[in-house]
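Lecture 7 notes: from sequence to structure.

We start with a single chain of 308 residues. Read the sequence below before looking at the structure.
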Amino acid sequence: MSIAAPTEPSGAGQPTPVADVAGESLLRGAWRRLRRSPLAIAGAAIVLVFVVVALAAPLLAPYEPASTQWAGLVTPQSVPGPATDHLLGLDSFGSDMLTQLIYGARQSLIVGVVSTVLGLSVGATLGLAAGGFGGKVDTIVMRLVDVLLSIPSLLLAVSVAAVIGQSQLSVMIAIGVAQVPVFARLLRGSMMLQSKSDYVLAADALGIRRRRIVMGHVLPNSMGPTIVQATLALATAIIEVAALSFLGLGDGDPAVAEWGRMLVAAQERFGNDPRLAVYPGVCIAITALGFTLFGEALREALDPRQRR
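Now the structure, written as tokens:
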């Protein structure tokens, strides 16, 4: 005896088939949740403004960076404040403050992106080796990662920068090295989780080579959390760039505008001219906040448990 499929009655008494509900891909669902998230919108807006200002610095800045043509206006007691020609006033070296802040955004973007890409590349390679090969390779790589994780990231970056020397390249390498263990452990954990999935067991049963399974299926499905972490790492990188410059380990060229160096120069005049420290400090805080908000929103949007 067969059982009829459930139907919904129509107005005429005839059964009407229930309409199928279309599925939704993970990326489409993530995009829908991002558009509805106020935090994601706010973070994306801050990041967009930061990137535009950094890329269009030569067009937006009213003067040349590190120009000291107004140095004669600066006295030991005071620094000229906002005026018609200088909307944010001058800094302690006689340079236009607005110009320095705009070019400082470009410096932070370049160093932050390059260092994050470096850390992601090396960390993902280690994570791929550990999660793909397993066994002794996994043990060796993870012990190395554990050693790096036992050192605070800023202290590790300071140590690497001090060994390499004072330059922009050393800052990029130092921050990238500090990010390597985070990416390595995250990708390795994601790959270990994916390797227990049903599709991997089915592929093994069909006799597909392990290398093809790892590179063609496990790795692509494991990159989501790593990409989200890269967005959050940009916020950390911007803060660490300023920290290394504040400690005197940044670019040694005084003509290079950098937010951390502006904080150092403002220390001696903080009592009389606090704006010299407030402006770059606010830029660092808002930029880091933007990347953090967008990264957290992206993490929630890509979380399968959040799908509705």
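The chain has two domains: 27-63+257-308, 113-252. Keep this in mind for problem set 3.
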